[in-house]
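USER:
Class, as today's exercise, take the chain set out below, and explain how the chain folds.
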Amino acid sequence: MTTPRSPKTSPFFQPEHDQLRQTVRRFVETHVVPHADAWEEAGMVPREVLLEMGKLGLFGIRYDSKYGGSELDTLATVVLAEELGRSGYGGFAVTVLVHTDMASPHLQHGGTEAQKSRYMPDIIAGRTITAVAMTEADAGSDLASMRTTARRDGDHWTLNGSKMFITNGVYGDLFFVAAKTGQPGRNREISMFIVEKGTPGFRVARPLKKHGWLCSDTAELVFEDCRIPAGNLLGQENRGFYALAGNLQNERIVLGAQAMGEAERAIELALDWVQSRKAFGGTLWEKQAIRHKLAQRASEVAATQAFIHQVAWQDAQGQDVVKEVSMIKALAGTLVNKVMYDCLQFHGGMGFIRETAIERMARDARVQSIGGGATEVMLEEVAKRMS
């Protein structure tokens, strides 16, 4: 990977953020980029790589020090996501970010002391990899349409239903599962549960083959009379809808930062290519249309990154950023796809060949306007808060 042409500068970043960025970038350059093509073929990120990240403290950035965490802030999460995005392997990035910022926060924020003491040290160390099982075939952004149920049966809960598109679903160890627990018609009465891999009645129905993010394992999960102890209720009964909605804000900041890391890297690759590619008596860089398009996209990425950094700082101060986070998700998911389209286009025929990084990155980016909240849903969230 090449060094960025200009350093990250922001009034929001402190020395600990810069140090974290350097650590993640070195790890990606040494342990990820040389090997990730093989992970794409295998459809998984090796556990030993995740364990190495745990040893570096990258899985506990915002968690309590008593469990092995670093107690940093939202900006640190953004740094991690940007640098993982810059790796050029979206599947690797999302494998990590689901674990650190989309699944395990449910335990951090909703778990009892006993639950956190039991699971959090191994989560932070990378010995236990987590997933959140929220989405269903007919219930994605519309959480109220969820059909999976959990019924109290003495000192146990019994889960029945299925989940779709679950990242870390095949090789994950610990699942935070959302299920309906209220009366029929009370669509927001959802609860969260801790389900360990290997629990009777819980199985991976099938791994899913995807358009992109190939080294991220994604699965359909099935729960058939899956009995778990009553103590595996995570948070308050019937309040899981609000836990899910609350954590979506963090998820969307993270996905936006990841997308901009990807876009930044794609522009670097395209710039290297057009400055060396000869055509019509000169380089492609000498064509004004190409120079201006790259300049336009670079400007849009820089502006979106600055907005993400500002909102991350606001979030770290405890401010309400629901509208702004929805803006981030809509902006970044759309922009990264524009960037990838143009950067692939400028690579010409080579951009269509699987051996080039930009081809993979363009495939990986497509889901950024879908996962974690489709662009159209995000714009509706913004619109509702404009009046």
